From TrEMBL:
Keywords: Fatty acid metabolism, Isomerase, Lipid degradation, Lipid metabolism, Lyase, Multifunctional enzyme, NAD, Oxidoreductase, Peroxisome. This is 3-hydroxyacyl-CoA dehydrogenase. In the N-terminal section; belongs to the enoyl-CoA hydratase/isomerase family. Belongs to the enoyl-CoA hydratase/isomerase family. It catalyses: a (3S)-3-hydroxyacyl-CoA + NAD(+) = a 3-oxoacyl-CoA + NADH + H(+). GO terms for biological process: fatty acid beta-oxidation. Pathway: Lipid metabolism; fatty acid beta-oxidation. Gene3D superfamilies: 1.10.1040.50, 2-enoyl-CoA Hydratase, Chain A, domain 1, NAD(P)-binding Rossmann-like Domain. It is found in: Peroxisome.
Amino acid sequence: HASPEQPFNLGGSDVADTQSGVTDLKVEDGIAIVTVNNPPVNALGAAVRDGVAARMREAAADPATEAVVLICAGRTFFAGADITEFGKPPKGIPLGELVTLIEDMPKPVVAAIHGTALGGGLEMALGCHYRVAVPSARVGLPEVKLGILPGAGGTQRLPRIVGVERALEMITSGEHVPAPKAKEAGLIDELAPEEGLRQAALDFAKRLVAEGKGPRKVRDLSDKVEAARGKPEVFADFAKANARRFRGFEAPAACIEAVKAAVELPFEQGIAKERDLFLKLVAGTQSKAQRYVFFAEREVRKIPDLPDDTPTLPVNSVGIIGAGTMGGGIAMNFLNAGIPVTIVEMKQEALDRGLSVIRKNYEASAAKGRLKPEDVEKRMSLITGTLDFEALSTPDLVIEAVYENMDIKKDVFRRLDKIAKPGAILASNTSYLNVDEIASVTSRPESVIGMHFFSPANVMKLLEVVRAEKASKEVVATAVKLAPKIGKIGVLVGVCYGFVGNRMLAERQREANRLVEEGAMPWDVDRVLYEFGLPMGPFAMSDLAGLDIGWSRETSKGETLREKLCEMDRRGQKTGAGFYDYDANRKATPSPIVEQMVLDHSKQKGITRRQISDAEILERLIYPMINEGAKILEEGKAIRASDIDMVWINGYGWPVYRGGPMFYADTVGLENVLARMEQWEREIGPEFRPSDLLRRKVEAGETFTGAA
Ligand code: 3HC
């Protein structure tokens, strides 16, 4: 480390001038312009770091150069450290040292920012003495989303510019801050015209020289952090206020500790603290999981037999059948993306109700400041409600979201087949049913697929794109590409009962019910899953959704706990009671009535209840899901293990820091999962039979994801 007292060191023996072509230096009017070109996002890999270091040294040594501009070619300023290098043996100059090298330059250095300056990218800019950006640029420290913290001085430099509170917010949320806002915060010195960044930065540098302004090191600033000095409550309060958002994650607490160090320790010691915290996090399982998720999210778009240049169909208008909770939620995704929607209902009342729910949702967002008031009307103006099925003759894509029943769905598709224009994509939002069978009633099965949204459909990020057997490549590629345009993570899945998500969920539900019969209470099961990191357990979830979905007094057999609860009119939150009792604020407490029911239920079934440990509850709920996931892979119903993990993270709230069920299986060891499944197969029944893939993986000493 070069310290501020040391003179600038031109040597730096470990820094090779790679001549790799990723960096370039030109001198114009006494200003050295260092340009980096490392597509696609100018990640700061070893070659880039060494190249920049070499160019900086050249510029420092060149007597004809009075200032330096650091700029990136292509679509963006540095998007951060090269995440693929994490966990590999270190190469080249470390990023933190490069930032210090820039900060210690004897001539002013100006960062010229476009696109996104993220993570290590913003840290590079913070090492520069001045920052110029185009208005469309965004800056941020998103490391927390990868389970780490800014490890190249970001936690020490950012608070020195924007103050402690803003820095805490930015570093623990990872938000991307638009350049104009960053300028208000003092993070950007000047906004450049959108098309003239290079020239603006050059002019800025020349002005510095003309005005005799030298390097201005962020590390030397202290006025912004003074207010928080000797006030540990600033940090404790921040942690407390955000406890819900941080639940289960290790990185946010470390981020807070690092910023605290920026306030309380001299710069060099703060950097050392940041380094320690970074190294601990980057070696941990959470960070591994979160980095895996970063790449898995991007991997879902890659379909082996659908290369990127597969032709797609235009989707400029959408029809939706059914204005219920699902239909309305689905519609909102398209309205948000500016795509007009025609929504069809059978009865005026249902249509009016559906439209008013959509409006209310938008108004609620506007009230919370998440949506501009004028956007409520803008979005509502894109939706047309009608009772006329014929209106579905014009949309490019029609999504059916009617009652989950094969006969009804077939009927809808028969009618749709007669009306929809040729080439329109016909999609079903079924959660379980066979899409091939639905397609078979039409004259154009090549146009039929499943698009399975998750409730609440305007919130949950998952979209299961169900590839029906006869669906054309264009149709499948269109649906996959459409997902990100409407803010979804689209995972391609095959036709099978419940597809990927609900098929695995059924395993968990079966075991949850069985555990309650064997000795656990519903709230024990829920608590174990909540502590694992899920938003709620299956019984709390059932209470929320309503226990009487698909139940009627006439057909009730009164056999399951759920049926018994419904018969007692304990139908979930809406009736103030279900598996739990609810107070006026919908706060749940374990119910003594349910406790007695559970005990009686076990007795009736001749089961002697036993004490079941939390560890056993967790394994019994999750290992069968993993086993089912392996079967799904084996049958080719999902393309890769990471796609299954994307389903669970984005559709069911599986904690990101555990990387999804398949990644989690890798972390606990597949041999352990297999051993339990074999044990339960012997002790309980054939539903636990281990999948062949799981066996093969264990025999070969392989993992599902190769990432854990
Ligand atoms: N390292 C390595 N590869 C990266 C990368 C990175 N930091 N950022 C993006 N990529 C890759 C992606 O995997 C993708 O590869 P693919 O085409 O093979 O799938 C390609 O670059 C393009 O990325 P996107 O598809 O995400 O492109 P977008 O235009 O949609 O988004 C972006 C661009 C906003 C920059 C987005 O890629 C992003 O958020 N990147 C990560 C930013 C980040 O987290 N930076 C912090 C890194 S950690 C760090 O800096 C530690 C330091 O403090 C020490």
